């Protein structure tokens, strides 16, 4: 998963012109707790919105035979739960991807697991979504896992959220119960940076307010789920975003051909523009933009291209080509918010690597400062984290790396942490703060070691917890000194 290869909010908009099919593809994530009805909701949406072929309908009706649920003979979740284990257990384990289109637009539906054990899969799906449908069972209301999923959606930058209060048929279509759940969720949403939040009462099994409006809830005057999806805008990039292209591969061929291949992650570049390698500052003029179907005069976000420059730059995979003015920060210290995905908890003594779009950088030290409490959604001080925790941390890198803030440029402002020994992904996160790389060790560089920090760290011993606290204090001091213009390195042999 990548919030590099990892990654909430919405409001009912009264009268927005439906987007033309050519304008956008909407990536829709469904999430929530186990048994809230995510797969059934999306299955019903596909079934009623003509997203299912005739042979699929026949297959689902045959598979549903004898499995009547509340008088219904069709198990709509079978359209999403494709794994044998999913059908046996009645839960979603892996992410299910489905595609359909209406007269107005095309949709990519990402059905994510609800069980806490599979939170990592949900986080992977969230990193691809434009909008999240967060389901809540009307009988049970907002749960801890609902809060966790909302926090992850916020973490990966989803700004639009639909609260779907499902199983309204199980509470006699109670407006009072629906309004209470809506109020609870909006209070939770105040902790996040969602920009739009829509709330829709539905009954996935009967189809109420999914595609067709329900006669059972005359008190609800808003749009159905599909009506709202037809009008909401997909995630778009700012028109003036700076150019970024992480280099995936350096291509060489005949006639002195040397091109830098990759996918443009933000902005636009034109033939004749001056581009630079973010890390070294080496620059050249763009001569050609090559693709499999011919040359282009410009390339924009999402385009996979090969750039030919008028001067060969001594760069390789992991470099970031950028415009000359608005460049990434060459950082060796960063602060981030991450979701811990590994079953093995964070270990300050373990070796980790930070993977960005195409780069892999050793982590010299890392410390956790706070964790999110999923009951109160407040942050509390902590020094460690475990599976499915969302933590704030500080990371010191072994070398400077070109990084952006996630709030500015999401695709170059996110990362995953991998175990240095086996390459397993342990966490995915977003960058919230960066510090320009420190100078090399020399006469003018202050090295922070045990001796210099003796008074500040006199209460600390050699336990893993104390070492983690030592790292945190040392990095706090280093950042304060660097902010004052003093080159600093933290000694690793402590």
What strand line-up does the widest sheet have? 2-3-1-4-5-6
Unreliable spans are: 1-22, 66-71, 81-93, 438-443
Cα end-to-end separation:
33 Å
Tell me the major beta sheet: 6 strands, mixed
Q: What is the β-strand count?
A: 24
CATH superfamily of the largest domain: P-loop containing nucleotide triphosphate hydrolases
Radius of gyration of CA atoms, rounded to a whole number: 25 Å
If you average the pLDDT, what whole number results?
81
The domain count comes to: 3
Briefly, what CATH class of the largest domain? Answer: Alpha Beta
Keywords:
Rossmann fold; disordered N terminus; globular; 8 helices; six-stranded antiparallel beta barrel; alpha+beta; Elongation Factor Tu (Ef-tu), domain 3; six-stranded mixed sheet; 494 residues; 24 strands
Overview of the structural elements:
This protein is α+β, with helices and mostly antiparallel strands and 494 residues long. It folds into three domains: 25-231, P-loop containing nucleotide triphosphate hydrolases (Rossmann fold, 3-Layer(aba) Sandwich), CATH 3.40.50.300; 244-323, Elongation Factor Tu (Ef-tu), domain 3 (Beta Barrel); 329-490, Translation factors (Elongation Factor Tu (Ef-tu), domain 3), CATH 2.40.30. The chain is built from eight helices and 24 strands. It has helices at 38-48, 54-64, 84-89, 119-126, 144-155, 175-189, 225-231, 464-483, and strands spanning 25-32, 96-101, 106-111, 131-137, 160-166, 196-201, 244-252, 258-263, 268-270, 274-277, 283-291, 294-296, 298-300, 304-309, 320-323, 329-340, 352-355, 360-372, 379-381, 390-403, 414-419, 425-436, 446-448, 488-490. The protein is globular and about 70 Å long.
């Amino acid at each position: 998963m990548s919030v590099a290869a990892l990654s909430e909010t919405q409001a009912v908009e009264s009268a927005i012109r439906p987007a033309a099919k050519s304008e956008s593809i909407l990536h829709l994530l469904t999430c929530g707790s186990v048994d809230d009805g995510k797969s059934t909701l999306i299955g019903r949406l596909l079934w009623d919105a003509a997203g299912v072929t005739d042979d699929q309908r026949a297959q689902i009706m045959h598979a549903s035979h004898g499995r009547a649920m509340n008088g219904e003979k069709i198990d709509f979740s079978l359209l999403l739960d494709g794994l044998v284990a999913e059908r046996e257990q009645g839960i979603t384990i892996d992410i299910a991807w489905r595609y359909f289109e209406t007269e107005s637009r095309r949709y990519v539906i990402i059905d994510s697991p609800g069980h806490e054990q599979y939170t990592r899969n949900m986080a992977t799906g969230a990193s691809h979504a434009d909008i999240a449908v967060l389901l809540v069972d009307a009988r049970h209301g907002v749960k801890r896992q609902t809060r966790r999923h909302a926090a992850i959606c916020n973490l990966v930058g989803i700004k639009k959220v639909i609260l779907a209060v499902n199983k309204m048929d199980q509470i006699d279509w109670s407006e009072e119960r629906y309004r209470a759940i809506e109020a609870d969720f909006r209070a939770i949403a105040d902790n996040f940076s969602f920009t739009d939040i829509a709330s829709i009462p539905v009954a996935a099994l009967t189809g109420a307010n999914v595609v067709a409006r329900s006669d059972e809830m005359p008190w609800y005057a808003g749009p159905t789920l599909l009506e709202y999806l037809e009008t909401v805008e997909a995630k778009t990039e700012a028109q003036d975003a700076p150019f970024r292209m992480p280099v995936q591969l350096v291509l060489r061929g005949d006639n002195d051909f040397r091109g830098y291949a990759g996918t443009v992650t933000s902005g636009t570049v034109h033939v004749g523009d001056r581009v630079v390698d973010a890390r070294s500052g080496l620059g050249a003029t763009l001569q050609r933009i090559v693709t499999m179907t011919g040359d282009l005069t410009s390339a924009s976000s999402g385009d996979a291209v090969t750039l030919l420059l008028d001067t060969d730059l001594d760069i390789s995979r992991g470099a970031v080509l950028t415009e000359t003015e608005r460049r990434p920060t060459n950082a060796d210290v960063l602060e981030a918010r991450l979701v811990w995905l590994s079953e093995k908890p964070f270990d300050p003594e373990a070796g980790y690597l930070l993977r960005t779009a195409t780069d892999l950088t050793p982590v010299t030290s890392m410390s956790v400062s706070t964790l999110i409490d999923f009951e109160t959604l407040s942050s509390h001080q902590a020094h460690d984290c475990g599976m499915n925790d969302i933590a704030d941390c500080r990371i010191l890198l072994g070398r400077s790396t070109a990084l952006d803030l996630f709030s500015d440029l999401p695709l170059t402002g996110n990362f995953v942490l991998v175990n240095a020994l086996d390459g397993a992904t342990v966490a995915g996160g977003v960058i919230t703060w960066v510090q320009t790389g420190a100078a090399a060790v020399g006469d003018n560089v202050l090295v922070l070691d045990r001796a210099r920090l003796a008074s500040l760290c006199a209460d600390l011993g050699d336990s893993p917890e104390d070492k983690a606290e030592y790292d945190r204090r040392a990095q706090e001091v280093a950042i304060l000194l660097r902010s004052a213009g003093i080159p600093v390195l933290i000694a690793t042999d402590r």
